[in-house]
Amino acid sequence: MLRDDLQNSLKEAMKNRDTQTVNAVRLIIAGQKEKDVEARGKGLEKASDDVLLAMMQSMIKQRNESIKIYQSGNRPDLAEKEQSEIDVISRFLPKQLSAEETEAAIKAVVSEVGAASIKDMGKVMGALKNKYAGQMDFGSASAIIKKILA
User: Fold this and answer.
1) CA-to-CA distance for 98 and 143, rounded, in angstroms?
2) How far is CA 83 from CA 71, 79, 104, 115, 120, in A?
């Protein structure tokens, strides 16, 4: 489904001569092809949607870091370009959980896996990634997990 959405968006953006969207979707599709090659190396036909969602989240994270650098370097034009790419990539991600929803989900997973100390953080992160791929920022989730398990 995600792959079809990407192809359809690319075609639509090309028809509308929306170069920003075309460029951003092409970047996503290139990353998708890269993940598919990795998956074939592991004996799978293609990368799963969860892998693709995680890839897109990392693309957004990279662009957010670039925006900070461009803003500190007084380059608002480049920061704006990165933000427009974030906007396009975000269209293909499921609705992100709010801070409250993220904390509630983490608490539920902590009790599910029976995590009692910081040593169980890997179990909690693994379960979260399986359940909430593409819906949660796992960087901020990590801090919340540490706070809960401390």
Assistant:
1) 15
2) 12, 6, 29, 38, 36
Rounded Cα distance between 124 and 119, Å, is: 10
On the question of pLDDT at 134 being above 80, the answer is: no
Q: Rounded CA gap, 36 and 29, in Å?
A: 10
pTM score, whole prediction: 0.74
Structure tokens at 102: 């993220």
2 φ/ψ angles, rounded to the nearest 5 degrees: -60, -40
Q: Which domains does the chain have, with CATH numbers?
A: 2-90 (1.10.1510.10), 99-149 (1.10.10.410)
**Is it the case that residue 113 has pLDDT exceeding 90?**
no
User: How confident is the prediction for the chain on average, in pLDDT?
Assistant: 90
How many CA within 13 A on the CB side of residue 7? Answer: 5
